[in-house]
Design brief:
Elements: E1 19-22, H1 27-38, E2 44-47, E3 68-70, E4 76-77, H2 80-88, H3 101-129, H4 138-159, H5 172-187, H6 193-196, H7 198-207, H8 211-215
Parallel strand pairs: 1-2
Antiparallel strand pairs: 1-3, 3-4
């Protein structure tokens, strides 16, 4: 006896490729691009200028910031710290964030310190480039540059003579630090951190040998 209910074959949902919305000069975008590269996970890069009058970034990230990741299910993920952690869980290759809770916190603290340098640097640069000269605040600018100086000193002290920021292999801590000091070279070449903090320079030179850093080098200003 034949049933009146017809069986339909199971169909797997068709997922779109992941898409990373960002710019070539953002240090936060560079950070997550390096993470995807180190994890051997493919992601399409869609360039977006958030300062352009016709930017559409708010349609995916209401904060109007990059990077913004459109996952393969179409959902938006932001900001760079969230994307980096998400990317690290996509592949067992090159685990960048430790599973141990305390070690994880240590790596994420390094990332917060590095991101703080980038935050301060961007705020200082915007003060000089977006505000009319008569409206610029030297006090505000000096405050941001002071944060950078203090953070660099802390980084150097914590790194000491170690080969890596945490543990015996590259982690998200090193990637974040490399992007932060690389951003200073890109936007603030007058800050001579290389001669003041030789251990940070050694780490940076080592990172620059990696394909992930080479491929994400920002274009000449």
């Amino acid at each position: 006896m034949r049933s009146g209910v017809q069986q339909t074959p199971n169909r797997m949902a068709i997922l779109d490729p992941m898409k990373l919305i960002g710019s070539l000069t953002s240090p936060y975008v560079r950070k997550v691009r390096i993470v995807f590269n180190e994890k051997k996970v493919d992601v399409d890069l869609e360039l977006e200028n958030v300062w352009a009058a016709d930017t559409k970034i708010a349609s995916t990230n209401p904060l109007g910031k990059v990077p913004c990741l459109i996952a393969d299910d179409g959902e938006a993920i932001y900001d760079s710290r969230v994307i980096a952690e998400y990317a690290d869980g996509l592949s067992p290759v090159s685990k960048l964030i430790p599973a141990d809770n305390r070690e994880r916190a240590a790596v994420k603290t390094w990332e917060a310190l590095a991101d703080g340098i980038m935050d301060a640097g961007i705020l200082a640069r915007l003060e000089r480039t977006l505000r009319p000269a008569e409206q610029q605040s030297q006090t505000w600018y000096d405050r941001q540059m002071g944060k950078i100086d203090t953070a660099l000193r802390q980084m150097s002290e914590q790194l000491g003579e170690n080969a890596w920021c945490h543990g015996n292999q590259i982690t998200l801590a090193d990637i974040a630090v490399g992007c932060a000091i690389g951003y200073l070279l890109f936007r603030f070449p007058e800050i001579k951190w290389q001669t003041q903090y030789l251990n940070l320079d050694r780490l940076h030179q080592k990172l620059l040998q990696r394909p992930s850093f080479i491929e994400t080098e920002p274009p000449a200003a």
